[in-house]
Design goal:
- The structure is a homodimer of 219-residue chains.
- With 219 residues, chain A is mainly alpha-helical.
- Helices cover 60% and strands 0% of the residues of chain A.
- Chain A contains ten helices and no strands.
- The longest helix of chain A has 27 residues.
- Chain A is elongated and about 60 Å long.
- The N and C termini of chain A lie far apart (71 Å).
- In chain A, 43% of the residues are buried.
- Chains A and B meet through α1, α8, α9 and α10 of A and α1, α8, α9 and α10 of B.
- Chain A binds a DNA duplex (30 and 30 nucleotides) through α3.
Chain lengths: 219, 219
DNA sequence: CTAATTCTGTACCGACCGGTGCAAAAATAG
DNA sequence: CTATTTTTGCACCGGTCGGTACAGAATTAG
C-alpha cells in the first residue's frame, strides 16, 4: 500500500508555490523551464515526472492559486447581501493584488492575457476560469434579485460583468505599481455604482428599514 | 537633398501597421522576429535597418498605435465637461477594444502586462505610457474642480485612477471575447460612479440650472 | 562612366527553447 | 540477499530565438 520506488525528494505543494510565484511575475510565456526548475529547486525530469509538462504545471499552479490565494472569493459570496458580497470581494481583491511579499497583480491576468499561437490555449484557459468566477457572482446576484435583495430591474449578468471588469482593472493597475491605498479609493468609487439593498423597496418585505448604506452621495 | 542610396521598397507606416496588429494579438514576448517580418512583408535586415531592433520596433508600433488608434482620447479630453470627457472616453474605449477587423483588446495592455527579465523594460514602458494617459485625465479633472465643473471635495487623481481602472478592465474583458454591447452596459454602470456637473452647486455660479444629468438613479 | 551610399536577400551566429534518454540512486517486496 | 519500481541528475535532442555578416542590387553625386 505504501509507495513502491524511490520517494520524491521535494514537496509537491511547496514546489507549486514557487511555480506560482514565477508564473505570477513573468507570465506563462515569459517563464522558461529553467526559470521554473531553478525556482522550484528541482531538476527538469523531476518536474516532468511530477506535473507532466510546462502547460500542466501552469494549470496546476493556477488551480492552487485559486484555492489558496483567491479563497476570499468564497468568503465574499457567502456575505448576507449582494452589496456586501461586492464590497468584500473588491476590498479583498485590492488587498490581494498588493500583498507584500507576493508579486503585484493577479496570476489569472498576468499569467497570460495574450500570446503567440503556441501558448494560445493557456490564454483561453485563464479567460475561461475568469468567466467561471464571474458566473458565480452572476448567480449570487440572480438569487438576490429573486429574493428582493436587489431591484428586479437589475440584470445579474451585467452586474457581475461590471464587478469583474473593475476587478480586472485593479489587477492591471497593481501590476503597474499602484498602491493598495490608491486601489481602495478606486474601490470606494466603484462601489458607488452598485445598488444596495437600502436604496430600493424589496418585493418580499415592507420598505420600512433604516438605511444602512455606507455609500457616499454627491452633495 | 534627396536620399542617396537604394530607396526603401516598403512604406514605414504600412509596415508598422502590420507590426501593431501582430503585437496587439500576441504581445511583445509572444511575437518573434519571424512573426514580425512575415506579417510586415520585409526581411529581417530591412526591419533592423528601418527600426533598430525588436524592442524599438515595438515602441514605434505603440507610438503609432497611440496616435492613430487612440486618437479618441484627445477628443474626449476636449469635451466641455469632466463628465462628458469620461463618458466619451469610456464609450470610445469600449468601441476601440471591440473594433471589427482589429484584435480584441488594447495594445497598451496586451502588449505586455508581465514578462521575464529580458522583456521587463517593455512592460515598464507600457505602464509608463498608461500612467501618462491617466495623468492627462487627472489634469482635466483638476481643471474642472478649479473652475467648478466638479465638486471641490473630489480628488482629481483618484477620479482619473478610477477611470483608467475601468478602462483597463474593459480591455481585459474584450481580450477575453466580451462583446461591445456588454462592455457598453459595463460603461453605463461605471458612469454612475462619476460625479456630473448637474449634481452639485458650482462654486462659480448660482445653483439654479436645470439638471441635464443623463444618469440613471436607483428607484 | 565611376564612386559612394543605402537597401535587400541569403545564410549564418551562439544561446536558449521545451522536452527526453539513460543510467545511477533509493526505496519496497519477496 | 535479489528483483522491481520510481526518482534523480547529466547530458543531449531538434528547433527556434534575437541579431548580424556579407555580397549583390539599386539608387544618387560627380
Amino acid at each position: 500500500m505504501t509507495q513502491r520506488g524511490r520517494p520524491r525528494e521535494f514537496d509537491l505543494d511547496d514546489a507549486l508555490d514557487k511555480a506560482i510565484d514565477v508564473f505570477w511575475k513573468q507570465g506563462y510565456g515569459g517563464t522558461s523551464l529553467s526559470d521554473l526548475t531553478e525556482a522550484m529547486g528541482i531538476s527538469r525530469p523531476s518536474l516532468y515526472s511530477a506535473f507532466g509538462n510546462k502547460e500542466q504545471t501552469f494549470k496546476a499552479a493556477v488551480e492552487r492559486y485559486a484555492r489558496v490565494d483567491m479563497a476570499y472569493v468564497d468568503d465574499a459570496l457567502s456575505a448576507p447581501t449582494a452589496y456586501e458580497t461586492v464590497s468584500r470581494y473588491l476590498r479583498s481583491n485590492a488587498d490581494a493584488v498588493t500583498t507584500p511579499g507576493k508579486p503585484a497583480g493577479c496570476l489569472s491576468i498576468q499569467g497570460g492575457l495574450s500570446a503567440g499561437p503556441d501558448d494560445d490555449r493557456v490564454v483561453r484557459y485563464l479567460a475561461d476560469r475568469r468567466a467561471d468566477g464571474e458566473r458565480r457572482f452572476a448567480d449570487r446576484f440572480a438569487r438576490a434579485i429573486a429574493d428582493g435583495g436587489l431591484p428586479a430591474s437589475e440584470d445579474a449578468a451585467d452586474l457581475a460583468k461590471y464587478v469583474s471588469t473593475v476587478s480586472a482593472g485593479l489587477a492591471v493597475q497593481a501590476a503597474a505599481g499602484v498602491s493598495r491605498e490608491e486601489l481602495h479609493r478606486v474601490v470606494d468609487r466603484a462601489l458607488l455604482a452598485f445598488p444596495d439593498k437600502a436604496s430600493h423597496t424589496p418585493a418580499s418585505a415592507g420598505g420600512g428599514e433604516v438605511s444602512s448604506s455606507p455609500r457616499a452621495r454627491w452633495g
